[in-house]
Amino acid sequence: MCPLPSNERSSKPGIRLSRTLEAGQAIYQAGGDGLAWRVRHGVVRLDTPTINGETTFASLAIGGDILGCETLLFGCYTFTASALTRCELNPWPEGEPAIAGEALLASLTIAQRRAADIVALRGGQAVDRVIGLIRLLTDSAGQVVLPTRQDIADITDLRFETISRIIKSLERARVLAPLRIAGVHATRSFQVDLAATAY
């Protein structure tokens, strides 16, 4: 197993610290070894390596999801993970083995539902795909921090220009109202009113 970077070490042996990552920061690489993590806050992009050495979008992980649990079985990460928004991650498992097993089963169930949601984001009308992603990422307060336009394009299988046009039209329709959130670029944070999506 690779040694932990200094910002993930604790002064007490065997204790692993939480991580905070800014948008765009790498979390881990496919094929590398390391820890499993629970997403406490934020959105993580998972990419799968291609034959030519590049990566392609595979899935998303949001608050509550467990990342990298495959390292417990296979000894290495299957996907490359990066923060789409500011993220807080905690080491997993967090407690007793029985509780960890239950948490993993619950996380796998959620991951299956999310996979179905993500498949739906890659087909149908372009505006419906983007609204579906917004719905998936909106928090309980009705606020959303969107990934970059390019990430949204990758997730929804649409062109960058199409994403920019749709976001602007959603702002004009007041589905998205710009919102100031400290540390978040002004073009990415919004108050969401999905009731205004009647078109």
Taking the alpha carbons of the first and last residues, their distance comes to 52 Å
Strand order of the largest sheet: 1-8-3-6
Multimerization status: single chain
Q: How many domains make up the coordinates?
A: 2
Give the SSE order as H and E letters: EEEEEEHEEHHEHHEE
Shape: globular
Mean pLDDT, rounded to whole units? 84
- The CATH homologous superfamily of the largest domain corresponds to Jelly Rolls
Uncertain runs with pLDDT below 50, 5 residues or more?
1-15
Give me the count of strands. 11
Indicate the CATH topology of the largest domain: Jelly Rolls
Q: What structural class do you assign from the helix and strand content?
A: alpha+beta
Percent of residues in β-strands: 15-25%
CATH architecture of the largest domain: Sandwich
**Number of discrete helical segments:** 5
Helical fraction: 25-40%
Give the C-level CATH assignment of the largest domain: Mainly Beta
Largest sheet data: 4 strands, antiparallel
Radius of gyration: 18 Å
What report would you give on this structure?
The protein has 199 residues and is an alpha+beta fold. The protein has two domains: 115 residues, Jelly Rolls (Sandwich); 71 residues, Arc Repressor Mutant, subunit A (Orthogonal Bundle). Helix content is 31%, strand content 25%. It has five helices and eleven strands. The strands form three sheets. It has a four-stranded antiparallel beta sheet. Strands 2-7-4-5 form a four-stranded antiparallel beta sheet. A hairpin with a 5-residue loop joins β4 and β5. α4 crosses α5. The radius of gyration is 18 Å and the shape is globular. The termini are far apart. The relative contact order is 0.13.
